[in-house]
């Protein structure tokens, strides 16, 4: 029994060493955060000045700072029937919404289709074509508010034949093939859509951040701060900028051995570093790699490493979220979830995992 206790003590000492090392490498004190912020500001300025950043997937400019051609945002006075289609890293969904102006705001909305079933609560003026807003959550170089060519895929997508094509033109062709009387009239990134939704309910909204399958941000910029803009400025004097900040990187970012290995084995190595550090697509995989290290170095799952633990992306971010929310004294949810995913219960220490 004494030998067994000594063995467990050594095992947990090794596990603790792995976690302490990870904690040190992930540390983000205020001074480091300031350095990261300063580095991002420098890249923002470079992206706002460089035309190369908008059309070249191999550009040395990290933040593309894409001009969206959206120079005004909702006021809350909008009226009429509108459609939206959202294509992102996780969802493909459609929406129909009836706006009733300042007093009625959103009269009615549905999130499934529908074109042939417009009924009570939805009114399209006679002779008017249906208008579709297209939210496309990937880097696009826009030439107008209703056209844009795909620069590259992110979030694990890899459809090579679409790169360099106008996504709006391709969608309009598909709509016509289906015999639907509808046309895409605006193309926006999901960050721009989120910014517009925020402005609709709060006129003080000036920026939007996406923390989902991927990560990105958009904000309102003054035209005199966009050197790469050609032509007369819009009347508003402002422009919404899609940062595409998932591609940000800096020597000040706390990259660990797990982040480096994940990037090297990804579909797009050496790209989207910031996104791989913090977004939902990758968080579960980073935790799996940490657990694998603990299983190998500290026999977390006894002497045999579960085969499932070596399968990339078998641990999803929602698994991690469920475990993170476990406040039970014996961490029962953590133990059950690890057993469910890896088919093996981790070694316990005094009744806890």
TrEMBL record:
GO biological process terms on file: glycolytic process; hexose metabolic process; intracellular glucose homeostasis
Pathway(s) annotated for this protein in UniProt: Carbohydrate degradation; Carbohydrate metabolism; hexose metabolism
Name used for this protein in its record: Phosphotransferase
Record InterPro entries: ATPase_NBD, Hexokinase, Hexokinase_C, Hexokinase_N
Gene it is expressed from: LOC100279587
Span of domain Hexokinase N-terminal: 19-200
Cited Gene3D superfamilies: 3.30.420.40, 3.40.367.20
Family membership: Belongs to the hexokinase family.
UniProt keyword terms in alphabetical order: ATP-binding, Glycolysis, Kinase, Nucleotide-binding, Transferase
Catalytic reaction list: D-fructose + ATP = D-fructose 6-phosphate + ADP + H(+)
GO molecular function, one term: ATP binding
Species name: Zea mays (Maize)
SUPFAM superfamilies to which the protein is assigned, alphabetical: Actin-like ATPase domain (SSF53067)
Domain Hexokinase C-terminal: 207-344
EC number(s) reported in the record: 2.7.1.-
Enzyme class: transferase
One Pfam family recorded for the sequence: Hexokinase_1
């Amino acid at each position: 029994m004494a030998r067994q206790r000594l063995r467990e003590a050594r095992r947990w000492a090794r596990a603790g060493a792995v976690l302490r090392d990870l904690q040190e490498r992930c540390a983000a004190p205020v001074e480091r955060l300031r350095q990261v912020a300063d580095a991002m500001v420098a890249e923002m300025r470079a992206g706002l000045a460089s035309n190369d950043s908008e059309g070249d997937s191999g550009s040395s400019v990290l933040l593309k700072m894409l001009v969206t051609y959206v120079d005004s945002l909702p006021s809350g006075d909008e009226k009429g029937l509108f459609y939206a289609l959202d294509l992102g890293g996780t969802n493909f969904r459609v929406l129909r919404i009836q706006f009733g102006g300042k007093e009625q705001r959103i009269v009615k909305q549905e999130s499934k289709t529908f074109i042939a079933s417009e009924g009570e609560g939805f009114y399209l003026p006679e002779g008017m074509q249906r208008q579709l807003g297209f939210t496309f959550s990937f880097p696009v170089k826009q030439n107008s508010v209703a056209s844009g060519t795909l620069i590259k895929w992110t979030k694990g997508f890899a459809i090579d034949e679409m790169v360099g094509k106008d996504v709006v033109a391709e969608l309009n062709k598909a709509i016509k093939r289906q015999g639907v009387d509808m046309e895409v009239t605006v193309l926006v990134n999901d960050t721009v859509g989120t910014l517009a939704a925020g402005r609709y309910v709060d006129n003080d909204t000036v920026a939007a951040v996406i923390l989902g399958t991927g990560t990105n941000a958009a904000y309102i910029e003054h035209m005199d701060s966009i050197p790469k803009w050609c032509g007369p400025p819009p009347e508003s004097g402002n422009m919404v900028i899609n940062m595409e900040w998932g591609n940000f990187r800096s020597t000040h970012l706390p990259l660990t051995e797990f982040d480096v290995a994940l990037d090297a084995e990804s579909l797009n190595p050496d790209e989207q570093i910031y996104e791989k550090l913090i977004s939902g697509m990758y968080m579960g995989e980073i935790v799996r790699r940490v657990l694998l290290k603990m299983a190998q170095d500290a026999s977390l799952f006894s002497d045999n490493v579960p085969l499932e633990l070596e399968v990339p992306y078998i641990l999803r971010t929602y698994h991690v979220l469920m475990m993170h929310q476990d406040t039970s004294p014996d961490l029962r949810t953590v133990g059950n979830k690890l057993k469910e995913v890896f088919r093996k219960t981790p070694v316990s220490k005094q009744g806890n995992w």
